[in-house]
Design a protein that fits this description.
Layout: H1 3-14, H2 18-37, E1 42-44, E2 48-55, E3 58-61, E4 68-71, E5 74-81, H3 83-89
Antiparallel strand pairs: 1-2, 2-5, 3-4
Helix pairs in contact: 1-2
Length: about 90
């Protein structure tokens, strides 16, 4: 499912235009992205949590040559589903 399909489902369920629904979907994802960029945790009750985690710098290998390379530290966004979502996925 992509953003357009989410917007279509929202428009159908609430009797709004697809353009308005797409705007709302885009704004929700923008708000999540903005909060994550600030390092904040985003908790959506009954759905799950988005957290920013730091990945430390480390040494890796170039798979083509086998040469050692340095991989820079970075941040990544992780998602931990709520119990209700896990239960729905697993039956």
């Amino acid at each position: 499912m992509n953003n357009s399909e989410i917007a279509d489902a929202l428009a159908t369920a609430h009797g709004i235009t697809k353009a308005d629904a797409r705007k709302y979907v885009d704004e929700v994802f923008a708000a999540i992205s903005d909060a994550a960029a600030k390092g904040a945790e985003v908790s959506l009750s009954g759905f799950g949590k988005f957290k920013v985690k730091d990945t430390p710098a480390r040494e890796g290998r170039n798979p083509a040559t086998g040469a050692a390379i340095k991989i820079a530290a970075s941040k990544k966004l992780t998602f931990a589903p709520a119990k209700a979502v896990k239960d729905r996925l697993n039956g």
